[in-house]
Write a structure and sequence with these properties.
This protein starts with a helix and ends in a 10-residue tail after the last helix. Helix 2 crosses helix 3 and helix 3 packs across helix 4. Helix content is 75%, strand content 0%. It has four helices and no strands. The protein has one domain.
Length: 72
């Protein structure tokens, strides 16, 4: 069960942890902000969350290690 939870934390909460590292805040506080803001604004922070998640995935794909053309 702990293995499933750690994978879930890395994939779902990765955005909050990333924002927390950038702002020097705990990821837990960022998650709570998203939850409360979603209730008060009828879900608009979820759109921001998905945009940041997409941006992080795109950034990791672009910055990933590439094989040189000559190493076939």
């Amino acid at each position: 069960m702990s293995k499933v939870r750690s994978v879930f934390d890395e994939t779902v909460y990765g955005v909050c942890a990333y924002i927390g590292r950038k702002l020097n805040m705990p990821g837990k506080n960022i998650r709570l902000f998203f939850v409360y803001a979603s209730f008060f604004t009828l879900g608009s922070p979820i759109i921001i969350y998905l945009i940041v998640a997409f941006w992080m995935k795109l950034k990791s794909m672009v910055n990933g290690k590439r094989n040189p053309v000559w190493d076939l």
